[in-house]
# Entry
Amino acid sequence: MEAGNRHTMKLSDLQEEIREVIQSSFETPRWIICEIMDITQNYSGHCYLDLIEKDEKSDKILARARATIWASSYRMLKPYFETSTGYELSSGIKILVLARVEFHPVYGLSLNIQDIDPSYTLGDVERKKREIILRLENEGVLDMNKEIPLPIVPQRIAVVSSMSAAGYEDFMDQLRGNPYGYQFYTRLFPAVMQGENAAQSIIESLERIFEYESHFDAVVIIRGGGSKSDLACFDSYDLAYHVSQFPLPVITGIGHEQDDTITDLVAHTRLKTPTAVAGFFIDKLASFEGELEEFQAVLINATLTILNEQKLRLQLYQQKYVSGSIAMVRARQEYLLKLTGNARFQILQQLRFYDQLILRFMEQLRSTAKYIPQRIAIESLHVMQRFKQLINNKMEGEAKRLEEYHRLVAYAEPGQILKMGFSISRMDGKALRDVKNTSPGSIVETELYSGKFKSKVIDIQKKNIL
# Structure
């Protein structure tokens, strides 16, 4: 078709030409690595997917295409994939598909999926897990939560789970119905336990628990069983990082008995089910009670042993004391008899000694009595001379003090005071001592050393004297 000088064609012709080129270029199906961005199934059983490829570093979308799995194929591929991998065909997982490239004039390019290789998905999941584990290990946080000591009697438990989850009910029933009657304090911090938002929801619950850290002994993360895809959130790096550095021991029981998630790996203790987690806490308390009973038995036995040993020792001491006391009494009796005989002899000896001492003292007294009057006269003369010297010293001191008083009195004589520059003011013959005793117009006589003069009071200025 020509329009003027230009060669033109219809859009349908262009699309048909494109279809033919694609069909000739892609005659056989191709194996394609991609990630499911979105997946839906209509009422007819056909599956429609939105496939993408992302940059591994920036997470930027590099390519995007629509895909279909017709109902006849989807009925076989879906259960085959999920049985082989344990994961559902859902958003966020990588798949390797055998697809034929098709082009429709109206709907454009699409991929018709004919087969899926589940081994690729398993390998990719494991590769991602290994990368996350290696990253946690390089950051030094992989075993941090395991190093936190669990209290000997862990009774205060923070629970991260869904309130409607069967696993949560199993956990609570097991705790409440324990055969020992132990009491536990639990508080639920609700979270979404599967799906795209699960990891972030659990992290937010952990952050709320952190605000009440001192109120709890441990944290449990529990949920009922499910497929691997249901548990994919527990392989999240962010969730594993938060669990590994949480300041309380974290015990997991997420209902998967075969494989460990990364969250299980970094947790303090990994258990299979919520019921097993409850049993873990019950066993801890039962073990402590058993240790207490064992210690009590050991303590009683040790006490009885000590009492028996002390009883025997007391009996030995009693026997030694009785026999020793009898021997001591006899020895004391013999000593007293001997002492009584010695005492009589010693008293006589002392009496003779004192008789001789008295005789010597009387003799000395007679010999010294004739010198007493002469000694008294000498001592009296010394006393009189000393007394006379003290009187002379006292009189000299008083004379000097009297002379000092005369000098001070001379300085106080009015003539001497005037000579020093002072003056005396009088009114009506009386000395003025205060300005309140005079008034303006009064005649005041002032005496100086060299003479007197009279003056008239013109103004009076009073001072504030405290």
